[in-house]
Amino acid sequence: MANRIFAIMIVLKNTAKKIGVKQMKFIHTADWHLGKLVHGVYMTENQREVLEQFVTVVAEEKPDAVVIAGDLYDRSVPPTDAVELLDEMLFKINVELKTPVVAIAGNHDSAERLSFGSSWYKHSQFYLSGKLTNSFNPVQINGVNFYLVPYAEPGVVRQLLEDDSIHSHQDAMKTLIGKMEESLNPHEPNVLVGHAFVLGGQTSDSERVLSVGGSGCVGAELFEPFSYTALGHLHSPDAIYHSKVKYSGSLLKYSFSEAKQRKSISIIEMDEKGEFTHRYRSLTPKHDMRELEGHLEELLDPHFYEKERIDDYLKITLLDEGALIDPINKLRQVYPNVLHLERKMDITDLKKKQSFNSIRSEKKSEIELFEQFYTEMTTAEFTQDKKEAMATVIEKVLREEGLK
Amino acid sequence: MANRIFAIMIVLKNTAKKIGVKQMKFIHTADWHLGKLVHGVYMTENQREVLEQFVTVVAEEKPDAVVIAGDLYDRSVPPTDAVELLDEMLFKINVELKTPVVAIAGNHDSAERLSFGSSWYKHSQFYLSGKLTNSFNPVQINGVNFYLVPYAEPGVVRQLLEDDSIHSHQDAMKTLIGKMEESLNPHEPNVLVGHAFVLGGQTSDSERVLSVGGSGCVGAELFEPFSYTALGHLHSPDAIYHSKVKYSGSLLKYSFSEAKQRKSISIIEMDEKGEFTHRYRSLTPKHDMRELEGHLEELLDPHFYEKERIDDYLKITLLDEGALIDPINKLRQVYPNVLHLERKMDITDLKKKQSFNSIRSEKKSEIELFEQFYTEMTTAEFTQDKKEAMATVIEKVLREEGLK
């Protein structure tokens, strides 16, 4: 069976060659956010590891280009080890593996700083567009035209194009694409590389559409002239469902809100008419980012954690009621990379909370009331030190208010 | 006469060609300090202008290389317009004028940030060494070997070379040069490009030697193996008088202590034995930096200032005694770029100052005493507002000290 499929594939490939259909393959990635700090922890080592996997994928896939759709760095002045990491990885991809690279600045990058040296990079087909210019000529690689649109605020585009009618990202993108269309040949494969908040198509999460609306968004319909639009900005590859306008998603999970997102890179193979196939390849970080929920005792039980990847980056939600003594340090002895700890109130707790105002009638002292509040709201112990400090404050307030 | 000299020159040049003496010409510059802020004023526009002159000199001289001996930027994270300026100027020199460039990081540059992309620059003979490595192979341009030694702290060199005996800059440079000597061919022209505080030879200013001594300095004798040592760090080309070890001096005057220094670039023509001629070419900034001294009235007199270059960057020293009403704003109406204003006390003033402690016997009130002090020490008026504010302070202090 496998042999027959293989034989058919070869026939198809040869037919394609005979009728002159040229295939161009590129990898679409974005939002590397090198130098990112998550809950106080630098992601650089995790990023290095995943980028090394990425380089291996490039070596295997042998694409005609790698497209990076913005936010290479997490901020305009990234830490120096992030600068060194980007330099090293791009060198491996572009110079050692001789793969053309097409990259744009995102809103997290500094257009000017990222641009430095880009004139020299072109020598080896590394096309880096940091700052938007009013030249709308595409970069041509193996018959595909890549139109590069680095992130720019509407005001910057208004000034650059001397067009006072530009007020929103939608206006800006529409005008920019209009300029491109003046010379774009619709019979060729054209790819736009952009970094924007694009809505439209069958968007996955309808609530999001309602909540984000306004001038920050760009309608997917604007990208109609292009065979494929390679986007960066939103971190999930599922942020938009559209046949031709796609996010690759970020390199890694960069917040616990992304804990359930899949992370991948996109591999596109495009023919000379701009028709393409699209598939995902995933990269596996050494430390995943995920959420864990349970009672403290359960989480600290070897029977439980033996089955867990204990060194993942974790947000732990404790279900325990009442006071717990130093849970964060106890958890870190088992799970070294706990980044965030929360406590969840169950219904009983909520009821307690709702009846909080009526508690005074129980004739508890102020300090007893505060202790109850503290243990319900935090995961730390209400120590004797804290008790004394609080007692002083209560005493002072009561006296100042004339209640004592 | 001129014709005869010209004829002789041609004969000499042809003779040199016949006997096979190859000449290599390079320009030595350093300490551009792009993004420098002097007394609150960005020098970027002045730097742009002088660098444009520099590019013109490169176009005229047609050197085989331009050597920049560190401190391209003034700080590790320079302002973005300085980043754009460096990018633009290096592109003109290296790509448009096709001139090889050899550059190292100085103590003001960030080794890692400056290094980004340097692997790509080599394509077009732009050799940028930001971070010291343990590869001591020279860059070869037209028969001359350039050994690049970017600035590094002794601790960094100690770690890099795994040599615990390195404690000072002297130790570090000695060890580095020792490594280079292992493969250096003394019969070839060898140039070291470094950024250091080098002393030795006939140093111009003996006081300086005494005052700076210690671990920050490097002895000029270390550079003996090299035909020429192109230095950066000290801002005057006269910082050292040595036949083979030279500073080019900074691009511009960067403080009033440099007001009387000449600023230039060095042009070196070297034969294949390492023998060289050395000459200076000066660049003329639109705004010079200089000091001006006089009485306020005189400086504001059109007969005086008509002969002055009023838009230079100025440090003005006023010789007036007593109170002056808002002299800085009056001066700026004539001299828009006054960066610093001082008042000089003559002997009478000094006597007044010395007898300051005895003034109390004159039975002046505290506020009168302060007013006298204020007008002697500053160039501003002691306004009614200031008087009232000060009176409140004096009142408070006297009361607290129980003197009232």
Which descriptors apply to this entry?
alpha/beta; homodimer; Purple Acid Phosphatase, chain A, domain 2; SbcD_C (chains A, B); six-stranded mixed beta sheet; Calcineurin-like_PHP (chains A, B); DNA recombination (chains A, B); Metallo-depent_PP-like (chains A, B); 404 residues
Largest sheet properties of chain A: 6 strands, mixed
Strand content of chain A: 15-25%
Radius of gyration computed on alpha carbons of chain A: 27 Å
What is the oligomer described by this structure?
Answer: homodimer
Largest interface, chains and sizes: A-B, 22 and 22 residues
Helix content of chain A: 25-40%
- Number of beta-strand segments of chain A: 18
Low-confidence regions of chain A: 203-213, 355-361
Number of separate domains of chain A: 2
What is the third-level CATH name, the topology of the largest domain in chain A?
Answer: Purple Acid Phosphatase, chain A, domain 2
Number of helices of chain A: 14
CATH class of the largest domain in chain A: Alpha Beta
C-alpha geometry of chain A: elongated
Head-to-tail CA distance between termini of chain A: 90 Å
- For the largest beta sheet of chain A, what order do the strands appear in spatially? 6-5-4-1-14-15
Write the layout of secondary structure elements.
The structure is a homodimer of 404-residue chains.
Chain A: H1 2-18, E1 23-29, E2 37-38, E3 41-42, H2 44-61, E4 65-69, H3 80-96, E5 101-104, H4 111-115, H5 118-121, E6 126-129, E7 139-141, E8 144-149, H6 154-161, H7 169-181, E9 190-195, E10 197-199, H8 206-212, E11 217-219, E12 228-232, E13 245-247, E14 264-271, E15 276-282, E16 289-294, H9 296-299, H10 302-305, E17 313-318, H11 327-334, E18 338-343, H12 347-354, H13 366-377, H14 384-400
Parallel strand pairs in A: 1-4, 4-5, 5-6, 8-9, 9-12, 10-11, 12-13, 16-17, 17-18
Antiparallel strand pairs in A: 1-14, 2-3, 7-8, 14-15
Organism (chains A, B): Neobacillus rhizosphaerae
Keywords (chains A, B): DNA recombination, DNA replication, Endonuclease, Exonuclease, Hydrolase, Nuclease
Domain Calcineurin-like phosphoesterase (chains A, B): 24-236
